[in-house]
Design a protein that fits this description.
two-stranded antiparallel ribbon; uncharacterized conserved protein from methanopyrus kandleri fold like; globular; six-stranded mixed beta sheet; alpha+beta
């Protein structure tokens, strides 16, 4: 399992953009809503599951897209199913850790 990630430092916090690798470069469309999973936002590098877990645990702001990514964050206790939104059967979630 691979994930595409980009990390950014923002006001002394680590911001993580992470998606299932197979979604990189795709557009998700539902009604008038379009989400582009762009390489410029999510495509800094590819990581395996162990590094993805570490990044999810150690990031303060997380923008995530994809079934594998969202499921992993729920399994780690970082996210809740209640916060997950779905566009064209693709889950996405934004988490701010306090």
């Amino acid at each position: 399992m691979q994930f595409s990630v980009r990390t950014t430092e923002y006001q002394k916090n680590t911001m993580l953009s992470i998606c299932d690798a197979d979604l990189l470069g795709k557009k998700i469309i539902q009604n008038e809503l379009t989400m582009h999973i762009s390489e410029s936002y999510y495509g800094e590098r590819f990581v395996g599951i162990d590094e993805a877990k570490d990044l999810l645990k150690n990031s303060s702001i997380i923008n995530m897209v994809g079934k594998e990514t969202v499921s992993l964050s729920i399994d780690l206790g970082i996210a809740s199913k209640n916060g997950v939104k779905v566009i064209s059967n693709i889950p996405f979630l934004i988490v701010f850790k306090m």
